[in-house]
Specification:
Number of strands: 14
CATH superfamily of the largest domain: P-loop containing nucleotide triphosphate hydrolases
Structural class: alpha/beta
Helix content: 25-40%
Order of helices and strands: HEEEHEHEHHEHHEHEEHEHHEEEHHEHH
CATH topology of the largest domain: Rossmann fold
Largest sheet: 5 strands, parallel
CATH class of the largest domain: Alpha Beta
């Protein structure tokens, strides 16, 4: 018995818009079922769907589900069909009906019968609570005390207060990296809008697949100085957010700043100024948010011991070393601090003084109060760093 061959042509319109990824497998399969008469076309009206299909008919998770769900809700979609593994992530968007299934057959049966997926959430239960761990509690976290670095601690607190970019310059071992890692816990806690936006960016990058919960802490990204422009800013063959956008709402830490290629660092100037980055290609472009607090660390000279008898660098070497950074980039560093290694006297005094945990100046609660005053004082609730000349 011979079988008749059928040629199927799938048209993904508009044809001039580039498509990529396995998320189109599920909508293509449903369209084929409608075209072959196995599924009633009206059941797909207003239905969005995304998922990868296996050869056995299983529906597998794919990246960017949260972004797709947000767009579906904005376009007033009737429902969104996803894999069972992606249902929890898609349900983070309120007011959107989620239909989930593990296989194509299961989804088709539910569409025919009008039944919903098991992971559907109501509008009330779809709002997850953003919990704060004890280590990052806004009311208890204290800025770590480093002997002899009170100026650096004050600079870090000011950076947290006003959202200022910070440059730390000092010899190895003076605490630059330790200070930078504390900044996210000093910043105000995330509200739901910020958490959803940050989680959506990480979903597009494929970093939260299968977790199904909002990111609860401000991100801290610390790329290596060998990172390419595409890795730091975003891009690639298929445009993806880079480290700059993945640090949105949090801290981007560039350790060994002078070791980054100057051509890469100079591309940070416009995104740091505007809070967004546009990735443009010949046929299309996309926009990613990039409102970050930039913290950079560098040694004072190539050997790291400038001003110390151990330094072996000439004045020409120092000039060449700092010549790797452009003036416009340094101009965006509102706070520039020179750190010195703690001497024996400061170490002895720190051991003899009262416990630094009693200091109320450098904690998240005082910074939160300063931010409230700043938002009330500044026009449009801008941070101090975002004020223009007239606002200042």
């Amino acid at each position: 018995m011979s079988r008749e061959r059928v040629r199927v042509v799938v048209n993904l319109a508009p044809a001039d818009l580039r498509k990529e990824g396995p998320a189109f497998d599920l909508p293509i399969a449903l369209a084929l079922l409608v075209a072959s008469g196995q599924l009633y076309a009206p059941v797909l009206n207003g239905l969005w769907c995304a998922g990868e299909l296996g050869l056995d008919g299983s529906i597998r998770p794919c990246s960017g589900i949260l972004a797709i769900a947000c767009q579906a809700a904005e376009q007033d979609a009737r429902a969104l069909a996803v894999s069972a593994d992606d249902a929890a992530e898609a349900s983070l968007v309120t007011g959107l009906l989620i239909r989930s299934a593990s296989t194509l057959r299961e989804l088709v049966e539910r569409l025919r019968s009008g039944r919903n997926g098991a992971h559907q959430r109501s509008s009330q239960s779809a709002q997850p609570v953003i919990q704060k761990s004890a280590s990052t509690s806004e009311s208890t976290h204290q800025l770590l005390h480093l002997p002899g670095q009170d100026l650096a601690r004050q600079g870090l607190a000011i950076a947290a207060d006003g959202g200022h970019h910070l440059l730390l310059v000092g010899p190895p071992g003076c605490g630059k990296t330790v200070l930078a890692h504390q900044l996210p816990s000093l910043l105000p806690p995330l509200d739901r809008e910020e958490a959803l936006e940050i989680t959506r960016l990480h979903s597009i990058a494929g970093l939260i697949r299968g977790k199904g919960q909002l990111i609860q802490q401000r991100p801290f990204r610390s790329p290596h100085h060998s990172a390419t422009a595409a890795a730091l800013l975003g891009g690639g063959a298929h445009l993806r957010p880079g480290e700059l956008s993945l640090a949105h709402g949090g801290v981007l830490f560039l350790d060994e700043l002078t070791e980054f290629p100057r051509s890469v660092l100079d591309q940070l100037r416009q995104p740091l100024e505007e809070g967004v980055i546009w990735l443009s290609r010949a046929r299309f472009s996309c926009r990613f948010p990039s409102r970050v607090t930039l913290v950079a660390a560098a040694n004072p000279c190539p050997c790291g011991w400038s001003g110390d008898r151990r330094c072996i660098c000439s004045e020409l070497k120092r000039r060449r070393y700092w010549g790797r950074l452009s003036g416009p980039l340094l101009d965006r560093m509102d706070l520039q601090l020179k750190l010195e290694p703690a001497n024996h006297d400061s170490l002895r005094r720190s051991m003899a003084e009262e416990s630094p945990e009693q200091d109320p100046t450098f904690n998240a609660a005082s910074i939160r109060r300063a931010r409230v005053r700043m938002r009330e004082r500044n026009p449009d609730g801008l941070t101090n760093r975002e004020l223009n000349a007239e606002g200042l």
